């Protein structure tokens, strides 16, 4: 597989990037070098190797969801930068 300048232009268009002609040429050369290096993986003998997505086994390490008491309001408000009528006051994000 080979990457052409037209392919680089197509991807740049999808990403809404404006590239100069020199950049397009350079990126095509660099992407082709990356693909050539990745082709070396085809030389490896993978017979009998199980397909994996991770090197180590993964498992969920989250705690059980248990009902417990909330913090008292005064302790929560002690951490708030500003308070107004029992609520944490934050800067407006909409006009």
From TrEMBL:
Alphabetically ordered keywords of this record: ATP-binding, Coiled coil, Ligase, Nucleotide-binding, Protein biosynthesis, Transferase
UniProt cross-references to SUPFAM superfamilies, sorted A to Z: Glu-tRNAGln amidotransferase C subunit
Q: What broad class of enzyme is this?
A: ligase
Q: Which Pfam families match?
A: GatC
- Does the record carry Flavoprotein as a key word? no
Q: Which InterPro entries match?
A: Asp/Glu-ADT_sf_sub_c, GatC
GO BP = glutaminyl-tRNAGln biosynthesis via transamidation; regulation of translational fidelity; translation
Q: Which reaction does it catalyse?
A: L-glutamyl-tRNA(Gln) + L-glutamine + ATP + H2O = L-glutaminyl-tRNA(Gln) + L-glutamate + ADP + phosphate + H(+); L-aspartyl-tRNA(Asn) + L-glutamine + ATP + H2O = L-asparaginyl-tRNA(Asn) + L-glutamate + ADP + phosphate + 2 H(+)
Q: What would you give as a GO molecular function for this chain, any one?
A: glutaminyl-tRNA synthase (glutamine-hydrolyzing) activity
Query: What's the Enzyme Commission number for this chain?
Result: 6.3.5.-
Coiled-coil ranges from the UniProt annotation: 5-32
Q: What does this protein do?
A: Allows the formation of correctly charged Asn-tRNA(Asn) or Gln-tRNA(Gln) through the transamidation of misacylated Asp-tRNA(Asn) or Glu-tRNA(Gln) in organisms which lack either or both of asparaginyl-tRNA or glutaminyl-tRNA synthetases. The reaction takes place in the presence of glutamine and ATP through an activated phospho-Asp-tRNA(Asn) or phospho-Glu-tRNA(Gln).
* The protein, known as: Aspartyl/glutamyl-tRNA(Asn/Gln) amidotransferase subunit C
Species of origin:
Cohnella zeiphila
What is the phylogenetic placement of the source species in the record?
A: Bacteria, Bacillati, Bacillota, Bacilli, Bacillales
Gene that encodes it? gatC
């Amino acid at each position: 597989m080979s990457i052409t300048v037209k392919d680089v232009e197509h991807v740049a268009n999808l990403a809404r990037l404006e590239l100069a002609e020199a950049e397009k040429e350079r990126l095509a050369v660099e992407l082709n070098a990356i693909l050539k290096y990745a082709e070396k993986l085809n030389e490896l003998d993978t017979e009998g190797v199980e397909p994996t997505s991770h090197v180590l086994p993964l498992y969920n390490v989250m705690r059980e969801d248990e009902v417990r008491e909330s913090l008292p309001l005064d302790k929560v408000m002690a951490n708030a930068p500003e308070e107004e009528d029992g609520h944490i006051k934050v800067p407006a994000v909409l006009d």
